[in-house]
Amino acid sequence: MTIEINIRKHLQADDRGFNLEIALHTESDRVVLYGPSGAGKSLTLQAIAGLLTPDEGLIRLKQNTLFDSAGGICLPPQQRKVAYLFQDYALFPHLTVAQNVAFGLRRGCFNLRRPHDHPVVRKWLASFELSAAANSYPHQLSGGQRQRVALARALALEPDILLLDEPFSALDLNLRDRMRRELSELQKQLNVPMMVITHDPADLALLGDEIFEIRDGMIAPPART
Ligand SMILES: Nc1ncnc2c1ncn2[C@@H]1O[C@H](COP(=O)(O)OP(=O)(O)OP(=O)(O)O)[C@@H](O)[C@H]1O
C-alpha cells in the first residue's frame, strides 16, 4: 500500500523544544520504524492516526488524503480507517473481552450488553482463540491474550492500516517470540498493511520489509555498507 508522509511539527515543553520533520514514501505492507528513545517514532504514528496535528505537510494512505495543510484537510481519527495499538494495549478494564472487541462496532440498536450477538465479534474471538475467554476481564488474562484482544478489537474495524507501537515490549522473551511470529502470519493472511515501532532487532528481521530509522525527529539516511 502507498504511504506518503511529509510533515513538520514543532513541540514545546517548558524550555525544551522538539522538531519533527518526517518525510517517507513506501509501497510496502510491512514497515518498521526504529531508532533511539525520544526520536519521534510515536509522534509519527500519532500523526498518521490523527492524534497529533502537524503544523504543515501531507499524509496520504492508499488514495486517501488524511492530512493536507495546503488543501485545508485534516480528517478526524474516526474517519481515517487507521487502527493504532498503544504500548500497553489500552484495553477497557471494566469491559469483558467480547465487549472490548465489540467496542468500535456499536451502532444503532447493537449494544455492549450482548456482544456475542454480533457476527463480527464472534468471528474475531474465534480466530484469535478467545471464545472461551469472552466473558473474562482484561486483568484475568495473560499478556499474550491481552495483546490478542487488542489486535482483535483493532482488526474488527477493518482498518486500512494497523499501527503498532512497540507491540511486544510488555511480554516476556518466549511469548514475545511467539507473538512476533503470530503477528507476521496474521499480516500475511489478512493482507492488512502494518507499521510497527520497535527497538528489537528480531522484529526488524521478521516484520520489516521496509525499515526506516528515525533520529532526532527525522528519517536517517540509509546506512552505507
Ligand atoms: N506533547 C509533547 N510536548 C512536547 N514535547 C513532546 C510531546 N510529546 C513528545 N514530545 C517530545 O518529542 C520527542 C519524541 O517523542 P516520541 O514519543 O515520538 O519518541 P519515541 O521515538 O517514540 O521514543 P520511545 O522509543 O522512547 O517511545 C521526545 O523528545 C518527547 O519528549
TrEMBL record:
Key words, A-Z: ATP-binding, Cell membrane, Membrane, Nucleotide-binding, Transport
Keyword Ligase belongs to the record: no
Domain of life: Bacteria
Protein name per UniProt: Molybdenum transport ATP-binding protein
Membrane-spanning ranges: none
Record bears the keyword Cell membrane: yes
Alphabetized GO MF terms: ATP binding; ATP hydrolysis activity
Range of residues in the leader sequence: none
UniProt domain ABC transporter: residue ranges: 2-225
Organism per entry: Collimonas fungivorans (strain Ter331)
PROSITE patterns xrefs: ABC_TRANSPORTER_1, ABC_TRANSPORTER_2
Lineage of origin: Bacteria, Pseudomonadati, Pseudomonadota, Betaproteobacteria, Burkholderiales
